[in-house]
Write a structure and sequence with these properties.
The chain is mainly α. It is built from 17 helices and no strands.
Length: 435
């Protein structure tokens, strides 16, 4: 049996995993007002915020470690089993949330969830490098990132709807089941990599592999012989640090919103759980559109003859240029409607930029090391996000989020500088010649 367009089936399943990933992680924030009232009835709002911020920081720190860990795991055991391990463990962790009794148990279960969910991103980068030629990678990454955005869109309404019928404990059990169901089509469809998958047509296999010649440093037509440095050698290239620093700067901006949107809407505009559930999804619509737009724009420009270097840099610059004024406008949005619309535009720009930043490892190195670099970049990104999350808990006391938005704008600029100055030319890196 041959399945036409098998690579699009693969990326669709990876995107669906991202949807489930975000439903699982966003359930905690969406349900927090109810959880806080149930488990910590004696505390005020600032006390609840401190506990929420601490648990969220632990989650992100665990996520940071999981990024580096799963980057190595995916390079070691491959995309198929790597994804099955990641989503299987995080679904178990989500299920355990239903049995949490306080800050300690929630922290433990969120930590397990963070480690396992982290596999989604180096896994996606690895799948992208394996299954797509260079000219389609930004689009494939955009489809994957749109899965995260769709997860953000549907998570809040789904949680809000479930809250009419179930308590918060039962809701965690319901959303955990989604991950277990995903394993069935994944293990059935993704039987092997493109070189040996029995369902892949000869034409599609040739298209995929010949389009990966950006990794063929000796021009022999075999992309697997691209530059695969050791981990130590990887860090000797400034381009690797460009990827890591850009990721560490821009990724915390996403976490600023996915962690704090519920509390921001509650503190600044007085929304309850159900009002948050039917408002907080709007910014993710902008993110979803931005993810697809950024991928299509990059594909269009490469098809038009632009170099990968020019395409990546100008697309990333466009995305960040859209973000900066939005951070300024969020200082005084006026109404909740204005705020969620501004955030939608900001996250549109974010996804345009991040989708192209996340393709840089596969633009620079052989597929055999892509998971490792993506994992380290992801770890740095989540460490930055953890630091920002902990800081926001302190600097937003009383409901003033202006300092957080100013920091977000500064981080966007740092990411842009890292790409332009540490990646002077985005192209396959060749080994350094010994003296």
């Amino acid at each position: 049996m041959k399945l036409k367009g098998l690579r699009w089936w693969v990326v669709s399943l990876v995107a669906l995993a991202a949807v489930i990933n975000y439903i699982d992680r966003q359930a905690f924030g969406a349900l927090w007002p109810d959880i806080a009232k149930d488990l910590f009835p004696e505390m005020d709002k600032d006390g609840h915020k401190a506990i929420y911020g601490t648990i969220s920081t632990i989650f992100i720190l665990s996520y940071a470690g999981g990024q580096a860990l799963f980057g190595k795991i995916f390079d070691w055991i491959g995309t198929r089993i790597g994804f099955a391990l990641s989503i299987g463990v995080w679904s178990i962790a989500t299920l355990l949330h239903a049995f949490a009794q306080g800050m300690l148990s929630f922290s433990i279960f969120r930590s397990i969830l963070g480690i396992a969910e982290a596999g989604n991103w180096p896994g996606a980068a690895k799948a992208n490098a394996e299954w797509f030629p260079t000219n389609e990678r930004a689009l494939a990454q955009g489809i994957f990132n749109s899965g995260a955005a769709i997860g953000g869109i549907v998570a809040y309404p789904v949680i809000g709807l479930l809250s009419y019928y179930f308590d918060w404990k039962a809701i965690f059990i319901v959303v955990a089941i989604l991950g277990f169901l995903w394993l069935l089509p994944w293990l059935f469809v993704v039987k092997a990599d493109p070189k040996s998958h029995p369902w892949l047509s000869d034409d599609e296999k040739k298209y995929i592999l010949s389009g990966q010649r950006n990794q063929d440093i000796d021009d022999d037509g075999n992309y697997d012989e691209g530059y695969t440095p050791t981990t130590a050698q990887l860090f000797k290239h400034k381009e690797s640090w460009g990827v890591i620093i850009a990721s560490a700067a821009i990724d915390p901006i996403w976490w600023l919103f996915i962690v704090w949107i519920p509390l921001y809407l509650s503190e600044v505009f007085g929304m309850d759980v159900k009002q948050i559930a039917f408002s907080a999804w709007v910014p993710y619509v902008g993110a979803m559109i931005g993810a697809i737009f950024g991928g299509l724009l990059a594909k269009n420009r490469i098809k038009a003859g632009w170099s990968v270097d020019k395409t990546r840099k100008l697309t990333i610059t466009l995305g960040i240029a859209l973000m900066i004024p939005c951070f300024i406008l969020l200082k005084a949005p006026g109404t909740a409607i204005n705020a969620v619309i501004i955030m939608a535009v900001l996250l549109f720009g974010f996804q345009v930029a991040i989708g192209n930043i996340q393709t840089l490892p596969s633009d620079l190195y052989s597929g055999k090391i892509v998971g490792t670099l993506s994992g380290f970049a992801g770890m740095a990104a989540k460490l930055g996000a953890a630091g920002l999350t902990a800081l926001v808990t302190i600097i937003t006391t009383g409901g003033n989020y202006t300092p957080a938005f100013l920091i977000g704008g500064a981080l966007a600029i740092i990411a842009l500088v890292a790409v332009w100055f540490l990646c002077p030319k985005i192209e396959p890196i060749k080994p350094k010649l010994k003296a």
